Amino acid sequence: MELLDNLALGFSTALLVQNVLYCFVGVLLGTAVGVLPGIGPTATVAMLLPITFSFEPVTALIMLAGIYYGAQYGGSTTAILINLPGESSAAVTALDGHEMARQGRAGPALATAAVGSFIAGTVATVALAVAAPPLASVALKFGPADYFSLVLLGLIVSIALARGSALKALAMIALGVLLGTVGQDIYTGTPRFVFDQRELYGGIDFVSVAVGMFGVAEILRNLENEKTRTTVVRTVKNLWPTREDRRRIVGPILRGTGLGAALGVLPGGGHVLASFTSYAVEKRISKRQQEFGHGAIEGVAGPESANNAAAQTSFIPLLTLGLPAHPVMALMVGAFIVHGITPGPNVITDEPALFWGLIASMWIGNVLLVLLNLPLIGIWVRMLRIPYRVLFPMIILFAAIGTYSLSFNAYDVYAIAFFGILGYILIKCGCEPAPLLLGFVLGPLLEENLRRALIISRGDASVFLTRPISAVLLALAVAALVVAVLPTIRRRREVVFAEEEGLDGISTPVVPPNPRAHDDLDERLRRVPPEG
User: Fold this and answer.
1) CA distance 134 to 131
2) Dmax of the chain from CA atoms?
3) Alpha carbon distances (Å) from 247 to 106, 241, 251, 253
4) Which distant-in-sequence residues (6+ apart) come within 8 Å of 426 by Cβ?
5) Which domain holds residue 321?
6) How is 250-290 classified by DSSP, letter by letter?
7) Distance between CA 104 and CA 463 in Å, rounded?
8) Counting Cβ atoms within 10 Å, is residue 105 exposed (0-12), middle (13-18) or buried (19+)?
9) Is 266 a domain residue?
10) Where are the transmembrane segments (predicted)?
11) Per-residue pLDDT for 234 more than 70?
12) Which of 15, 47, 65, 20 is CA-nearest to residue 209?
């Protein structure tokens, strides 16, 4: 009964006119950036973050969340119609979705992606509503040593799941933690790394880092590598799958939902890992393995369900522990903090309307996404005709204006330019900016709990091993680090993330002209050319 009462509170908040409106705006923008390759939800949330500071906290978070899970829907549209995934997690959808479109079955492929996404999103939101309160109750028992070990575990797992070199991911996290130390010491007030710059005494602005790293840097990278977009399907007919199709997609949708819900809580690329894992599972257990890569509808249903379920459950560690499982979740941490709310277990008790309103809005958003993604297919296809040379300068202009409006300080605009250039250089060097942002967000939390634990224990470092929760978390961190450096695990990780260039929303075409190249997924992924 308590759960039902909480959900009633959530829906009474989410169904307020302004919240429904901004939920619609969020999922609409999310679908749009999912459709348009080269932007992605991370850059979009980063650049819209300044605008949301004038909103009510629950309204801002509802819109930003809608952008994130809305992009998972939109990414499948271009993957199916033009063989160009708009979202990294939709890369595997193109393997069979585009083949279905070439066979004149784009309608059933799009409907399967939409229905699977809706079911997965709904089930995963139920899981979020059920699992979050007990986890938050457990988290309330954590002391400083436990939180330090938990944050350390999250950072190490993000290294294990990061694309490319684990050493580069570690370096990016270290750089992010270092940037997080800029400003006055949290206990003594001593300036650190400020170089006599008055603007740095309060620390580096989170919005400047986010907009620069994920907005400007990604746009610079995409301007030099504009993708060719060739529409195979201009009109979509017969959307509803046949009875045989419906029979074949039930199992993949359910299995994909379960996999995505479980993998979504992992730091890093949980949604990408979920979609590839679902595809591999469906191919392995299918009685029609020869159809995979040639238009198997299971190859659309499973991965799309998995990545959308993962998008919803990635909110669990954010809302219960205050730890981001994805770069967008790190931006959400910034949104919480700017609105004067500390994300974590206390949100449920201190801000129940916000917590349950955000969860209820996900159900509303999933319904809106089904209405947006099926009847409006033609509009999304026409959006692909917008030239990047027109689209990207407009995005940078609005991002700069939004950031400047926060404090009316030109220093913030210069910071955007600096971090944009830095992010572009890091991308060209093969370094993923996502771990840097996670380190930047979690670094101060890591330092604060480390020092607090040592103060309480009077400098006795054994407190991290004598507390059972901390000891277990440290053991898991060591195990994750060992697993991350194993050659077999490293090879499998590189295969899974071979389709992802940098961040969400930027993927290379995954279906080659020769249909025989579909015969083995692993072999095809190994043939993806190395990134810039």
Assistant:
1) 6
2) 71
3) 18, 10, 8, 11
4) 172, 217, 432, 433, 436
5) 2-225+235-526
6) HHHHHHHHHHHHHHTTSTTTHHHHHHHHHHHHHHHH-S-GG
7) 64
8) buried
9) yes
10) 45-69, 109-132, 144-162, 169-188, 200-220, 315-341, 353-374, 386-407, 464-486
11) no
12) 47
- Does the pLDDT of residue 524 top 70, yes or no? no
Q: What are phi and psi of 56, to 5 degrees?
A: -65, 145
Overall number of domains in the chain: 1
**Token pair 């730890």 is at which residue?**
323
- Rounded to 5 degrees, what are φ and ψ at 183? 120, -165
CA distance 453 to 473: 15
Q: Which residues contact 4 (CB under 8 A, 6 or more apart)?
A: none
DSSP lists the bridge partners of residue 500 as: 507
Within 10 A of 383 (CB to CB), how many other CB atoms are there?
17
Angle at 524 between CA 522 and CA 530, to 5 degrees: 105
Query: Which structure tokens are listed for 449?
Result: 């709990």
230 is a domain residue: no
Measured distance CA(98)–CA(104) in Å, rounded: 10
Query: Which residues on neighbouring strands pair with residue 507, listed in sequence order?
Result: 500
Neighbouring C-beta atoms of residue 529, cutoff 10 Å: 7
Question: Residue 325: is it exposed, middle or buried by C-beta count within 10 angstroms (0-12/13-18/19+)?
Answer: buried
For residues 380 and 74, the answer to whether their CB atoms sit within 8 Å is yes
251-292 pLDDT, tens digit each: 899 999 988 888 887 765 567 778 878 888 888 888 887 788
pLDDT surpassing 70 at residue 88: no
Total residue length of the chain: 532
pLDDT tens, position by position, 153-207: 878 877 766 666 778 888 998 999 999 899 888 888 888 988 888 888 888 887 7
Among 86, 17, 2, which residue's Cα sits nearest to residue 56? 17
C-alpha R_g of the chain: 22
Task: Answer whether 61's CB lies under 8 Å from 335's CB.
Answer: yes
Residue 532 is assigned to a structural domain of this protein: no
In a domain, 531, yes or no: no
Cα separation of 78 and 84, whole Å?
Answer: 5
Per-residue pLDDT reduced to its tens digit, 293-303:
788 888 888 88
H helix or E strand, kind and range, residue 414: helix 410-428
Identity (one letter) of the amino acid at 486? L
CA distance 491 to 162: 12
